[in-house]
């Protein structure tokens, strides 16, 4: 019998501690699956999943459906860690073949969070919380991951909750600012645009890099408010300065998956452009590969609507995701940004040079432009120019800074360094989060 959360808590009424393993199974990206196959088929899929869990696992004493796409299995035996790992592995294995829902065969991925030990009925609410923390950690690690709960995770989870609260207040207290990093056209050395990079100036934490707070914001609707704020601020800043900026100046703004999948995103974007007065041909939205994969069905249409406004699309951190080239080739986009991990050791690593060459060839075939990220030395800049890469961005050309501090002068890639560049090159070991 498939219990509810309440049913599960009621049934777990024993008072003596018993060895037990609690496994939470969360389906990955089930919302996207629902969008793809329709809700009727989505429901049949959930049924198929719950039947497979029941039929193919060592009989759980209790099984419950906790939320839309989350199941709990409580095995009353073997609380030791080997059993926990065994059960988790067995669960993940169930998702290696497709599920049938009516005429459709659909692949469903799952994440698994596990807690084990000796359980009294009264402890179950806490176990559920901990398993849920482990499941959250598993989801953060990607598709098909399994995580066994450790006490340190509870502390990290509290810290994320604190961060989320502070972030919410930070938006009200106007503690965010936008830095801009110039994008350089390699053939001429001129500044062709800039990427807007969000900064949080916290009164207690100091300058917090986006790598720390964006993932937290992405776990809630906070990312929507934040993304909206950046888009408004950056388009307004650039629209105001446009007469003083180099001709054809292109503003790049990072957009998260959560923003893009909002059905009213194109309309909101159009409204932001109208308010700011920035002509759409001066704006490029940067999306990561993972965004494009997750969104799947809606992504193509959504991107097409954005481009119909005259706004360009760039694929950020290119080469770090898992998207197939066949899939990418069907999506409408204008630009790829080669991830800095390939650019950083361009001169020392033949492998990285080969990857960059491949991306350049592919881009030519697709008719899209290329921006290389993370250029930290003159030698790398020159090499990229030789390879035929159109544009680049990196500390050697300029660190992210306030718009009024951005150096707009034409860079000389061939000089002895005098007169350019304004910011000293930094060691390649510097973490990107220090920008
Ligand atoms: P990204 O979009 O790939 O941005 C490039 C990152 O590389 C920036 O880090 C930048 O400061 C850093 N960087 C630039 N040149 C160099 C270099 O020569 N060497 C090294 N080591 N690093 C360099 P930042 O500002 O910390 O941003 C990190 C990530 O946070 C961004 O990666 C982007 O994914 C995300 N992010 C930043 N602002 C926003 C935003 O407004 N919205 C969203 N959704 N994400 C944002
Ligand atoms: Mg970016
Ligand atoms: Mg990037």
Fold and architecture overview:
This protein has 2 domains: 2-150, Reverse transcriptase/Diguanylate cyclase domain (Alpha-Beta Plaits); 163-405, TIM Barrel (Alpha-Beta Barrel), CATH 3.20.20. The chain has 16 helices and 17 strands. The chain has helices at 5-11, 30-37, 39-56, 81-93, 124-140, 151-172, 210-218, 222-241, 257-260, 265-276, 289-295, 297-308, 325-329, 340-343, 350-366, 378-387, and strands spanning 2-3, 18-27, 62-67, 70-75, 99-101, 104-106, 110-119, 146-148, 176-185, 191-202, 206-208, 250-254, 283-288, 312-318, 335-338, 369-372, 391-392. An 8-stranded mixed β-barrel has the order 9-10-12-13-14-15-16-17, surrounded by 5 helices. The protein has a 6-stranded mixed sheet with strand order 1-3-4-2-7-8. Strand 9 (176-185) and strand 10 form a beta hairpin. The longest helix has 22 residues, at 151-172. The chain binds ligand C2E and magnesium ion (2 copies). One magnesium ion binds at residues 316-317, 337, 339, 373.
- Provide the CATH topology of the largest domain: TIM Barrel
Q: What's the helical proportion of residues? A: 40-55%
CATH class division of the largest domain: Alpha Beta
Please give the domain count.
2
In total, how many beta strands? 17
Strand content: 15-25%
- So, the CATH homologous superfamily of the largest domain? EAL domain
Given helix and strand content, the structural type is: alpha/beta
Bound molecules: ligand C2E, magnesium ion
Q: What would you say the CATH architecture of the largest domain is? A: Alpha-Beta Barrel
Discrete helix count:
16
**Residue runs with pLDDT of under 50 for 5 or more positions:** 424-435
Largest sheet: 8 strands, mixed, barrel
Gross geometry? elongated
Cα Rg? 25 Å
How far apart are the termini? 55 Å
How are strands sequenced across the largest beta sheet? 9-10-12-13-14-15-16-17
The chain-level mean pLDDT equals: 89
